[in-house]
Design brief:
The structure is a single chain. The protein has about 100 residues and is an alpha+beta fold. It is built from two helices and four strands. It has a four-stranded antiparallel β-sheet with strand order 2-3-1-4, covered by helices on one side. The protein starts with 7 loop residues before the first strand and ends in an 11-residue tail after the last helix.
Length: about 100
């Protein structure tokens, strides 16, 4: 028996009122509910997200639904895995009036 990772994705649900936000538990795992900003974050399987987003959008207390773009975001610093070197110029760091031990 091998362990397989199920691809999951977040769904951001903007609400009119957060009182009924608990009803969203039947669609997936409710990770966060913000009372101040009136939104909830739900995690669910990636293959079910399109149809569940349509069902959630039809609920009366839901203002809008957004699918997270996180899997498509490039998390690397450079493009095409380029090696980037950061250099610090010693002259830029040097103070004109350095602090001596007596001043400390």
């Amino acid at each position: 028996m091998s362990f397989e990772i199920t691809p999951r994705r977040a769904l951001i649900v903007h609400l009119h009122n957060t009182r009924q936000a608990r009803q969203l538990r039947r669609f997936g795992i409710v990770k966060y509910i913000s009372d101040a900003a009136k939104y909830a974050i739900i995690y669910m399987n990636d293959d079910e997200i399109e149809q569940k987003a349509k069902l959630i959008d039809r609920l009366g207390f839901v203002a809008s639904v957004e699918i997270s773009n996180w899997p498509e975001v490039d998390t690397t610093v450079g493009s095409d895995n380029e090696n980037i070197e950061f250099a610090i110029d010693g002259e830029d760091l040097a103070d004109e009036n350095p602090i001596t031990d007596e001043e400390l």
